[in-house]
Amino acid sequence: MKVGIYFNKKYLPNCARLADEIKHKLARCGSGCVAISERCSLDGIDVLMVLGGDGTILNVASECARRGIKIMGINYGHMGFLAEFEQDKLDEATELLCSGAYATEKRSMLEINIEGKQYLALNDLVIHRSVFGSKYSNTINLSATIDGSLVDNYLSDGVIVSTPTGSTAYSLAAGGSVLVPGLEAFILTPLCAHSLHSRPIVYPCNSELVVCGNNQNAAVNISVDGIVIGEFEGGVKARVTKSKHYTEFITSGKINFFDKLLSKLSKWSR
Q1: Do 176 and 261 share a structural domain?
Q2: Do 61 and 80 have their domain in common?
Q3: Cα angle at 60 between 245 and 258, to 5 degrees?
Q4: pLDDT value of position 185
Q5: 176, 162 in Cβ contact below 8 A?
Q6: pTM across the whole model
Q7: In sequence order, what are the residues at sequence separation of 6 or more whose Cβ sits closer than 8 angstroms to the Cβ of residue 100?
Q8: Cα–Cα distance for residue pair 38/35, rounded to 1 Å
Q9: Could you count the other beta carbons within 10 Å of the beta carbon of residue 189?
Q10: Which domain holds residue 181?
């Protein structure tokens, strides 16, 4: 088994020393270990230990999914919804990896097609009005269809399309429901819609969602898992389906989702 270590240097200024400690521990059980600094260096890795916050995991999730690499998350960030282990459990996590006595959990992902380019999202796709410069707009006009049927027209700040994993992130802050990780569904959440009937929609993940901009003169910003992929003219079309790829997490098999949810949301409210 070849293990990679990926750090968020913002949280871990001493990451080189910590990487050496992990390498020595894994070497004792016969596992090779390398530090990963770029996503393009993931080839040949079986397991990636990610030390940081949720954003650090999201930064590598799509590349790991494409390569079939399992992720072991160690929370050194603020929220840590995606990480199985807290930083004081690093030794326990390393021992679990060495023993091979861990469980795994597959998380569904979005496949997003925009203007001929494909993106993967573990958390969400966000289509938002432009808030900068000459392309600034107060609202944007979007329409959403599921399997060809109109869901709604949204005069709003934008929309969020989220997986169950991402339902506890931006979508939740915007009033969306929490979806348990194993649920075969996605959620469409409007952002500040100018309508009393525009509410979050939970729909089957085997459906095709298409979101279209209806105002040619308005620009929209589009982000995938928190990374802005570009500013597009108002007529842009985003096609969203369930990806054939999954993000696979290593877990201890001991943590209940609702216990973790309550703990993290209580931390969020402080």
Answers
A1: no
A2: yes
A3: 75
A4: 98
A5: yes
A6: 0.92
A7: none
A8: 9
A9: 27
A10: 109-243
What amino acid positions are annotated as catalytic residues?
Answer: 54
Conformation bin of residue 269: beta by default, left when phi > 0, alpha when psi is -120 to 50: alpha
C-alpha torsion 95→17→39→228, nearest 10? 110
Fill in the DSSP letter of residue 265. H
pLDDT of residue 128: 95
| All residues at 6 or more sequence positions from 269 whose CB lies less than 8 Å from its CB, including other chains | none
Tens digits of per-residue pLDDT, 207-260?
A: 999 999 987 778 899 999 999 999 998 789 999 999 999 999 999 888 888 888
Question: Do 76 and 127 belong together in one domain?
Answer: no
Residue 11: CATH number of its domain:
3.40.50.10330
The torsion region of residue 108 among left (phi > 0), alpha (psi -120 to 50) and beta comes to beta
Residue 171 structure tokens: 């979508």
**C-alpha span between 91 and 148 (Å, rounded):** 51
Answer for the pair 140, 218: CB distance below 8 angstroms, yes or no.
Answer: yes
Pairing status of strand 185-191 against strand 201-204? antiparallel
Q: Which of 18, 23, 17 is nearest to 4 (CA)?
A: 23
Verify that 116 and 20 share a domain, yes or no.
no
223 with 172, same domain: the answer is: yes
| Percent of the residues in the chain that have a pLDDT greater than 90, as a whole number | 60
Number of domains in the chain: 2
Note whether 76 and 17 are same-domain residues. yes
Q: Are 76 and 114 members of one domain?
A: no
d(CA 260, CA 118): 32
Closest CA to 83 of 61, 45, 51: 51
* pLDDT given at position 260: 83
Q: Which range among 7-16, 43-52, 119-128 shows the weakest confidence by mean pLDDT?
A: 7-16
Q: What CATH number has the domain bearing residue 237?
A: 2.60.200.30
Looking at the structure, tell me whether residues 113 and 237 fall in a common domain. yes
